[in-house]
Specification:
signal; five-stranded mixed β-sheet; NTF2-like_dom_sf; 150 residues; SnoaL-like; SnoaL-like aldol condensation-catalyzing enzyme; 4 helices; alpha+beta
């Protein structure tokens, strides 16, 4: 009898875990679109007013020196990125999502003809808005073809 109870408990636990871990692929696809749209509006279009409307009021940016809220982030990016490199552009190479997180791998150029950098940005969404950001940026060595990095 104890074995039957144990087996039943394990079976119920397995079904409970499986139900909890079920991914919502439609939501993840929507999150990828929201993050990609924001990425282009923010970095390529440099439309800060539209970008701000796409950001959660409690937005947190984990990039060093970029501030923690919407206004601090926009101000820092305008001063330290667009202020120095007004022709800065991104090109999305890969995008993936799991739950409320979206990863975007991109090729960035500070100016036309720049050899560029590879970047991995992670965005957390809440309520259909960009709520949090992390990134990792890597210079592409001059002796490496940029496309070999993606």
């Amino acid at each position: 009898m104890k074995k039957k109870i144990l087996m039943l408990t394990l079976l119920i636990s397995a079904f409970t875990v499986a139900a909890q871990n079920k991914r919502n692929l439609a939501r993840e696809a929507k999150n990828k679109k929201i993050a990609a749209d924001f990425f282009i509006v923010f970095y390529n279009d440099k439309n800060m007013e539209k970008a701000k409307k796409m950001m959660h009021p409690d937005f947190i940016n984990h990039h060093p020196y970029s501030g923690k809220g919407i206004e601090a982030t926009v101000s820092a990016v305008q001063e330290h990125l667009f202020g120095k490199f007004p022709d800065f552009k991104v090109s999305i190479k890969r995008i993936a999502a799991e739950g409320d997180l979206v990863w975007i791998q991109s090729y960035t150029q500070d100016f036309p003809g720049d050899h560029g950098k590879m970047s991995m940005d992670i965005w957390r969404l809440r309520g259909g808005l960009i709520a949090e950001h992390w990134d990792i940026i890597q210079d592409i060595p001059n002796d490496i073809t940029p496309s070999s990095m993606y």
